[in-house]
Amino acid sequence: MAASQTQRPRTMAANTATWRDVTAAAVVLVGGPEDYLGSRAMDRIRGQVREAAPDVEVSRLNAAIYTPGALEMNVSPSLFGEQKLIEAEGLEAMNDAFLVDALKYLERPEPDAVLVLRHGGGVRGKKLLDAVKAGGWPVVDCQPLKKDADKVAFVASEFKAAARRINPDAVQALVNAVGAHLAELAAACSQLIADATTAVDVEMVDRYYGGRVEATGFKVADAAMAGNAPLALSTLRHALATGADPVPIVAALASKLRGLAKVAGAQGSSSQIAKQLGMQPWLVEQAQRDVRRWTPEGLVRSIQVTAEADAQVKGLSRDPVYAVEHAVTVIATSVRRS
Asked: What CATH number has the domain bearing residue 168?
């Protein structure tokens, strides 16, 4: 991908985009606490870069445990001149070394590299976020879909993008059935789009999701985070056997762990922390209860294995099922026993 394709003219206003239409650029900021939309935005950018440069070299950085100089090393031109894609996650917990290196990099981005910055919300690293926006690079804001109307619009857009039809009452029925978590709602849309031969109606939604206890990604994550490995693995296997996609399951694990990591180092009341981190107060309170059962080492180990599983289920492994099972096992066995 040439520089003209990745580097946008610098202006004094951010080049705002949605997760559905963001275009790869030399620097892209994917911000906001909704992990699923953030993952979709990053998937879209990754797909664009790979389409333009099939031999692209993909690197991933964790801004919370970043080592000085790692960004420069990953973006440096290689001997064979491959396109570089660097995905930096965890910016909401970035260390000072990452902040310094990233600010320096923004002054002169590499022409044959795409740097995607994932910030989950909060005030940490505001100087870097402001610099990205001031530079005119694409900025995607991934906020939770809290209202039913937003979830209805999401479902309608999923079917429209797939050139498939769903009746309006079926859209509402689907939101009512599996709309608590966006990743689950998206997985349900994908399943119906794949299976339906005609327009999806209420009867089909009810047949798939009505009155049935769902083995969902978040139930897998809840069991793993509780340290119940047998339940987490059996729920996972049932979910996969009934057609669940490994990607949203890993997203659910990542979401739970990210919430713990955010809250672990925060101080103040639950409402103060919620405002600071851009989280719901009840989620903060839940994370505060859960984090007491974790050691810092166990949490870091679980985050690392989940990041590895995320890469593997998105194409870096021939056995994504094993990758998810391994992550669930590590997480469940990392919980400190009371």
From this structure: 1.10.8.60
Spatial distance between the Cα atoms of 204 and 209, rounded to a whole number of angstroms: 8
pLDDT (tens digit per residue) in 51-88: 999 989 999 999 999 999 999 999 987 766 678 999 99
- CA distances in angstroms from 160 to 170, 175, 306, listed in the order given: 14, 16, 32
CA dist., res. 283 & res. 155, Å (int): 25
Q: Please count the other Cβ atoms lying within 10 Å of the Cβ belonging to residue 176.
A: 14
C-alpha atoms less than 13 angstroms from C-alpha of 283 in its C-beta half-sphere: 17
Give the global pTM. 0.61
**Number of Cβ within a 10 Å radius of residue 91:** 27
Can you read off the two tokens belonging to residue 137? 């690079």
Q: Which residue has the tokens 């992550």?
A: 327
Q: Are the C-beta atoms of 115 and 27 separated by less than 8 Å?
A: yes
Say yes or no: 152 and 137 in one domain.
no
- Mean pLDDT, the chain, rounded, equals 86
